[in-house]
Amino acid sequence: MDFQPDALTVTRTEQVREFLDEHVIPAEPVLAEQIAATPDDWSARPVVRELREKARERGLWNLFLPPGPHGDGLTNLQYAPVAELTGRSPRLAPVAMNCAAPDTGNMELLAHFGTPAQRAEWLDPLLDARIRSAFCMTEPAVASSDATRVETAIRRDGGDYVISGRKWFATGAMDPGCAVFIVMGKTDPGAARHRQQSMVLVPRDTPGVTVVRPMTVFGYDDRDHGGHAEVLFDEVRVPAANLIGGEGEGFAMAQARLGPGRVHHCMRLLGMAERALDLMRDRANERVAFGGLLAEKGVVRTWVAESRVEVEALRLLVLKTAWLMDTAGNKAAMTEIQAIKVAVPRAVQRVADHAIQLFGAAGLSQDTPLAEIFAAARALRLADGPDEVHLAALGKAGLRPKHPEGRQP
Amino acid sequence: MDFQPDALTVTRTEQVREFLDEHVIPAEPVLAEQIAATPDDWSARPVVRELREKARERGLWNLFLPPGPHGDGLTNLQYAPVAELTGRSPRLAPVAMNCAAPDTGNMELLAHFGTPAQRAEWLDPLLDARIRSAFCMTEPAVASSDATRVETAIRRDGGDYVISGRKWFATGAMDPGCAVFIVMGKTDPGAARHRQQSMVLVPRDTPGVTVVRPMTVFGYDDRDHGGHAEVLFDEVRVPAANLIGGEGEGFAMAQARLGPGRVHHCMRLLGMAERALDLMRDRANERVAFGGLLAEKGVVRTWVAESRVEVEALRLLVLKTAWLMDTAGNKAAMTEIQAIKVAVPRAVQRVADHAIQLFGAAGLSQDTPLAEIFAAARALRLADGPDEVHLAALGKAGLRPKHPEGRQP
Amino acid sequence: MDFQPDALTVTRTEQVREFLDEHVIPAEPVLAEQIAATPDDWSARPVVRELREKARERGLWNLFLPPGPHGDGLTNLQYAPVAELTGRSPRLAPVAMNCAAPDTGNMELLAHFGTPAQRAEWLDPLLDARIRSAFCMTEPAVASSDATRVETAIRRDGGDYVISGRKWFATGAMDPGCAVFIVMGKTDPGAARHRQQSMVLVPRDTPGVTVVRPMTVFGYDDRDHGGHAEVLFDEVRVPAANLIGGEGEGFAMAQARLGPGRVHHCMRLLGMAERALDLMRDRANERVAFGGLLAEKGVVRTWVAESRVEVEALRLLVLKTAWLMDTAGNKAAMTEIQAIKVAVPRAVQRVADHAIQLFGAAGLSQDTPLAEIFAAARALRLADGPDEVHLAALGKAGLRPKHPEGRQP
Amino acid sequence: MDFQPDALTVTRTEQVREFLDEHVIPAEPVLAEQIAATPDDWSARPVVRELREKARERGLWNLFLPPGPHGDGLTNLQYAPVAELTGRSPRLAPVAMNCAAPDTGNMELLAHFGTPAQRAEWLDPLLDARIRSAFCMTEPAVASSDATRVETAIRRDGGDYVISGRKWFATGAMDPGCAVFIVMGKTDPGAARHRQQSMVLVPRDTPGVTVVRPMTVFGYDDRDHGGHAEVLFDEVRVPAANLIGGEGEGFAMAQARLGPGRVHHCMRLLGMAERALDLMRDRANERVAFGGLLAEKGVVRTWVAESRVEVEALRLLVLKTAWLMDTAGNKAAMTEIQAIKVAVPRAVQRVADHAIQLFGAAGLSQDTPLAEIFAAARALRLADGPDEVHLAALGKAGLRPKHPEGRQP
């Protein structure tokens, strides 16, 4: 359980920090201007493309992908501080470094389970950021937290699969450059509960695909990042070769995909919390109210103190999770992944709430990233499985009679 | 301390409930469509104007204004359940009944402190909903929670006042129909701390007035309600007759204006909580996850139970506050006003948070009013004075040695 | 819903307050000395007997018993402020005024359901404080929160009942003056779930009764109040005339008994909170730390403010509950009783926690009543039904489809 | 930042666990019986002395003392899991292994700052458990959280010091075997704020020393561990050679003493939380209520899940603190020490609260260690400095402009 950053981590972290300070943070107001200038555009803005070039030059590219046949990125433990740093500028840094969800998860999925043809067609351009991708899992009609309830049908018909169903909150899918959707549905509703689901690749331009509308999250539509779309699949026909993995493997692949995704979200959230704490520090040292600097108020100090303690403790738990994934595998780290998936968004929501309160009206507005950070943390208490699902699983495990290991020091 | 609704309250409540059920709630999707159809418009949409006619026909108009020379509305205690009901459809019901902030507070201000000429010019059209108004108090450059820090200058120059300063979060000011701004500034920075401020009426079209940009609140711009504007006043000249009350009375009038406003916000928030609880109940009885209806899950039941208890207790405290305002005056109710101003938004934020969690992604989206309710409650922990200011005052009062009354049963 | 105290309430409240200030609070250190002087005694100390005489002289006696054939006390609404006042000195005031649990509940039970002979034998001496009584319901072997699980057997045998079972937390039963136990058990384990239980009167000196040991609550044994005993009933034989009500009516009578008891607990808890707040106020105005009075610290003010708001809101909910019991009956007030049963102990625990924190080590010790108040509040989150049972019931009710009344304003 | 237990840690942990399972836990009811049999005795009971022999035989003795001239114990990182294990049986394990507060802190103090003569007279018998010691710092008359306010006078008079003052919560001092008191007082009230204090050794039998009375903590008097005494020093005269360190060094030595003490408390608290979680698990798997095992209830699972997450995250923060103390010194770990001092007691209080709720009345009673664990956690939010002092310091540090290190990953 050694969390000391190794040489590569130190180098990468330093590079990313410099990239952030010199290029990404200063680009935030530029992004805001470009969005304001092209309000109806759902694709990445020019400033993103410029940052991508800079990131690529520095080798800060696809770092999320663990070393292996298709990736030369970082281990989870090495990636943790890098991903955390990208969270400090959540709308720009991850996408600039081609480390943004949902493409990261989709790339991992293709790297692990894709056929050579699938990888050539979709993984390579994704790794190169020439296209983007969406993951279509959540459905408006059912409690998708229970993945066995998914209703979208994937019916075999000769050499094809025919897909029918309605999905929503497909992040990125409003972007016209989002060329492919990975769709989770049921190929065999009669099979065992976790063997009914499969995943297929559906090119955006396939007949029967309708991108219905953008969904908002607390009023944000995230139009610079492709938004979150409702997508209708009406008798959509794709070749059988578009199946990822085998029939009935959809549930297992979703779990495999979601594990690292959840951890990456937690890492970035810690960075968002740090950004909020930095902003609090600066604001508290310049604002005066009721006879003193905000930095001198007992209540403000308590907010900062409690926030710091939560962040410090949870960062260590994230590092332990990453270390465990690297050394024992994602499955062995399941309990830890569930733990941080529940604890980190809650904590970061609290930190952001304090920061908003310190900033007053500005904290609610577009002039700080705080309300967006709050919304991101709040949304992650639902995205990739609501807290209650993870808490129930953790509680069940914790109550298992004679739980022999993992509990004692 | 008799909270039993009298005959008029029962009648009005019944009328409002019927109006809501038959006209307002069904108009919500219509409003959404009209906003989508005219995204660049910041004025009230046709559906609002239609609802206004219907409200007027039913006498559900200006009910917020207590009986007196300029109002024939309801007492605070009578208004409480009416205002709560309007909170159930927060974007439509208050505005339809001409009971929406900030116009309500501005109308009260003019009714109490306006000259006959000011009332003729501004109050009458406001009571008739022919124009709208904004209240310009908060400034980006200072902690406006401490009203003595306001920096906008109101300089006497011959028969005029000349106003210079920057305000923001002027609700409604993006609406071109918002014809007048009430601006708080300092006429005498050398006077005693609470005698430096004054208020002047500034017509929208006065030279030097620039409506700079809309501010967002958690991603919402509230464009159907005139948004929240940043407004620049650059050497804006108005006749001295535009002064409301006397020089140096701005602070006192602001306090007088904010008292009822805070209480109205709390009443409406309770209605928002009830709406959220209704939505939770309906959803929980139709969604199935992990082998059962959500309504049967222990965790969901706990959410609903804790929410109900908070709402029931705080409703009584709101009623007591209203009763105290009616019987002993707004000043005597100051402690209670501060108490509900702190407690109600916090509680409603928790209720909305549970409701969002129950709804999953839909709860975060535009398909339910839940995320907006959450944002409204969160914003009200800052608007009209942040929690910390009220808590400090309440705590100071509660710690006053030998506090002889109001504490013991 | 008129909570205004009537003339009798005003008179009684004033009398009780005077009695408290002049006699009860000054007697607290006397009680401590008398306990220290007779550590092995479990009966009421001399100071209690003296206070009883004083209370009786003033007519402050049995005020808990609503007007009726056997009581000439106060209505619930009238009793609320009186009971709250007694909570300010929880170890002395209730017992001095013969208004202490569990005797109050037992007296109500006998008044409502006892035969004339039972009332003559047990109710009269209880009303006169010549004896005390215990209520034996909770069992160590089963989750007694689910009353249908009670295992004690009450077997009919000719003209007798024979009782076998083990009870604990029988408050008062360590007191040798506790002359009678009301025992809940099953007369017919084959009946419908809520018709299996019955209650019998068991005189303390009946063969087979063993008072096994005192139980502690957070280290407190409450030996001045008869403690909380484990009691073994080993083939205990009593005449069939000792049955209270009819066979199978035990569950219903327990519910009837517990309703008012829960409300009285809440009333007294509010008084404990007020005592804690008074102590906080006094302490904060005399202690200096880190350069200022505690009363001037922002964190302390926040504690006091949040505490006051909670107490004010919950007092109103308690009053509403009492009013509802008086006007619509205990059954109609069930939801409100459950609500305050959950909310009040939690709130008072928080208040006491703040008070302890303000006092430092003294707050944990016998030199203030704060740790005892904390323990009392904490214990009441379990006594008379754990929070979870009430929350589940409240949540279930709140989620009932189309809940037509009680929700809307 | 390598937290992997080394070979010695693994060995010691295994030995301690075995010692606990085979000897300490089974001795808990024996201790209860021995206390009941000798209620007026304040010294260690026979079972403690027997366990000490067993611990000594196994080399599980004085493990708290880091390697150095006077200790051959464990580093902080090695000690962490050992101390945590002792927390599982908090009344027996620490004292059995001569690792109980306050003797540990006093031994460290003497090891670091004592003269050879002081060490020979007091440290050696303490290391051998032949005597016990108390630390007299807190005073009833002042807010001792602010150490500069201590009022006890230590006056130089020729070759002696003369001590006058009143202390309380001197843990262990009721034990007649507690042979020496380390007393903090002011030698120079005119010096700089942190140079006024000094410490002297005062043998128990010195004329003028009066052990006044035992203090309780939530009703517990801890009489098997020497209780918590109020001690009066009335013109107590000791030779000048009894001064520890130099005059004016008392404040600095207190800080040095308290650092490791706070960390040890946190380690043991984690063990208490684990004990509570074990008890919850066992209970939940055997108790049935409302139609199912408690282990199957959603609310119970949530309690366990949230508890586990908190414990796991905070254990890592404790390990980091220990590692930092070992590698960078106690002073460099100050922020982390403050962080865990605040966070761990709060978390363990929450865990114990859940456990009590699960157990019902038994959880409040002497039949489980839960209420004692709760009280211990609650008390540690005050002992060794209240939360507010640490939060203020942490907040101040976190708000320091341009905090260059320790924040970023």
How does this structure look, described?
Four copies of one chain form a homotetramer. Chain A has 409 residues and is an alpha+beta fold. The first copy, chain A, has three domains: 7-127, Butyryl-Coa Dehydrogenase, subunit A, domain 1, CATH 1.10.540.10; 132-246, Butyryl-CoA Dehydrogenase, subunit A, domain 2; 251-398, Butyryl-CoA Dehydrogenase, subunit A, domain 3, CATH 1.20.140.10. Helices cover 49% and strands 15% of the residues of chain A. Chain A is built from twelve helices and ten strands. In chain A, the strands form three sheets. Chain A has a four-stranded mixed beta sheet with strand order 1-4-5-8, with helices on one face. The first copy, chain A, has a four-stranded antiparallel beta sheet with strand order 2-3-7-6, with no helix packed on it. In chain A, helix 1 (7-37) packs antiparallel against helix 2, helix 1 runs parallel beside helix 3 and helix 7 packs antiparallel against helix 8 (298-328). Chains A and D meet through helix 3, helix 7, helix 8, helix 9 and helix 12 of A and helix 3, helix 7, helix 8, helix 9 and helix 12 of D.
